[in-house]
Design brief:
Low-confidence stretches: none
Shape: elongated
Strand order of the largest sheet: 3-4-5-6-9-10-11-12-13-14
Largest sheet: 10 strands, mixed
Oligomer: single chain
Distance between the termini: 25 Å
Helix content: 25-40%
Structural class: alpha/beta
Mean pLDDT: 94
Order of helices and strands: EHHHEEEEEEHEHEHEHEHHEHEHEH
Strand content: 15-25%
Number of strands: 14
Number of helices: 12
Radius of gyration: 21 Å
Length: about 350
């Protein structure tokens, strides 16, 4: 019988495990420390639990840690990891070092329902949601886990389409009894899932990033079918109900495609759209994927777009491209592994 994982359980769930096993209440705190602080991989390592209780727990539970099955290393230090989840599904996790920062980009789903035309993951279709254990495992099981300074939910999947498990993972990551990270170190990206945005902003203090990619709804619809369900105007109206002037940061992701959304007319329109919002814009160079005619904007056009937004008072930066000598675009490594299998 497949065992239940302790990894990914909240404080309340660990208390329930302890109560059911007839263990003292303080054992929940001990287990949380072993899982999220000391980061053990086996129940036998929880040495301040009695041998009897460890044996009892091992009948039903395991820790739930698993190492990546393969990795690809870029000349710039970026490492893309591939994790097996379940029998024949795979997700990607990317480690990105940059001077005094070390960012990990994690996945929240196997595949994705959103079908954005520029995304390789969307072309896989949707397989299933990741559990909180599978999300947390990515963070604790990569090679440089103890050196991480930042975490971004920008890997495979739409985080707010897996809202319960993602929120559970965020609770574990930021709680004093958990990994104990500051929410300011975590950013969650979304295509604009309205109910997810509202719950996320009401229940967490982590940063939010919204994928926009055009200031025009009709044009956005051409590359992001979710515009039908989550209208740009509704997204921006919702965001204006919240205060982003203090600790929490709001950013917009904007991939620049040559001849599609990278001229100064688009920059002017984007600045008008974002007027009144305390935000920044991350301009991203497109990584080409098979079967997609979209092309990356050239550096001069990207710089002009950035400068125009800054001229309008919208803080904009160009995100440095990383890992270009490996499977850079999200979803490419897992797709290749799936096809090989």
């Amino acid at each position: 019988m497949e065992k239940e994982h302790l990894l990914g359980k909240t404080w309340e769930e660990l208390q329930a495990v302890v109560a059911e096993a007839g263990m003292p209440r303080f054992a929940a705190k001990q287990m949380a420390a072993w899982l999220y602080d000391k980061r053990v991989t086996d129940l036998a390592e929880m040495t301040n639990l009695s041998l009897r209780h460890r044996d009892q727990l091992s009948q039903r539970y395991d820790v739930g840690r698993s190492l990546p099955m393969q990795s690809q290393r870029s000349v710039d230090g970026t490492i893309k990891y591939l994790f097996r989840v379940g029998d024949n599904d795979f997700v990607e996790t990317v480690y990105i070092p940059d001077r005094d920062r070390a960012t990990l980009c994690v996945s929240s789903q196997v595949g994705c329902k959103m079908n954005c035309s520029f995304c390789m993951t969307g072309k896989q279709g949707f397989r299933r949601n990741l559990t909180s254990a599978e999300i947390i495992n990515q963070i604790l099981s990569v090679e440089h886990s103890d050196q991480l300074t930042n975490l971004v939910f920008m890997g495979m999947g739409e985080p707010f389409d897996n809202l319960d498990e993602v929120m559970k993972a965020l609770t574990i990551l930021t709680a004093d009894w958990g990994v104990a990270w500051s929410p300011k170190r975590i950013t969650v990206s979304t295509i604009g899932h309205l109910a997810g945005i509202r719950r996320f902003l009401d229940e967490s203090h982590c940063h939010l990033a919204v994928s926009l990619h055009s200031p025009y709804p009709a044009e956005r619809l051409q590359i992001m079918p979710v515009e039908k369900a989550f209208h740009m105007d509704d997204i921006l109206d919702l965001l204006r109900q919240y205060d982003f002037s203090h600790q929490r940061r709001l950013s917009f992701e904007y991939i620049l495609f040559s001849g599609f959304n990278d001229d100064l007319v688009h920059a002017d329109a984007l600045a008008r759209r974002l007027k009144g919002l305390d935000c920044r814009v991350n301009l991203i160079r497109f990584h080409a994927i098979p079967g997609v005619n979209l092309k990356s904007s050239d550096p001069r056009s990207m710089e002009a777009f950035r400068d125009r937004l800054n001229h309008h008072g919208v803080t904009a930066t160009i995100r440095a491209s990383r890992g270009e000598d490996i499977f850079a675009a999200c979803g490419m490594l897992s797709t290749a592994e799936k096809e090989r299998k």
